[in-house]
Amino acid sequence: MLGTSHRIMGFASGAGLASFFGADVVGILTCSFVGSLGALAPDIDHRGSKVGRMFGPLSWLVSSLFKHRGFTHSLLMLLILAWTVDRYLSPHEMLGYAFIAGVASHILGDMLTKKKVMFLWPVPIYIGFPIMRTGSKMEMPIAVILSLLMVMAPYHEDVLSFYYHYAAPMWS
Length: 172
Ligand SMILES: [Zn+2]
Prior knowledge:
This protein has helices at about 5-20, 25-40, 50-55, 55-65, 75-90, 95-110, 140-150, 155-170. It has about 170 residues and is an all-alpha fold. The protein has one domain. The longest helix is centred in the middle third of the chain and has 19 residues, at about 95-110. The N and C termini lie far apart (about 35 Å).
């Protein structure tokens, strides 16, 4: 996926997550911004990407250690981030989770492209549901539809009740 599509989806995932936490407007906007940053972060493993160019030496290090769409696009990465947020970011975990939501939205977006991602890294298998090519005409409509779903999901009754019964007790 291209940077713009990732940013839109990251923005939406941050907003959706903030609604889960019952955040006010400022909280929702902040989480959206943080989510959009998270949505760019996984491509640190690609030196030509926007974030890769911004963090040159770090990107050089990560891209020489890991293949593109490998470790930084994996379930393991999400778990490490969640562990870090739980351990070090409380009581500001909402922003940390917004970042993770952005990262997750990036991984999902890349999974939908032909190249897929090594979601189960270090298992060297590319996993995904390829329905488009990066930069194709389909990309933006798909990104917008997914973004709308991510913003609306927290308002769905089943999602909310799942959150209050299972997820919320973990951090309250
Ligand atoms: Zn990527």
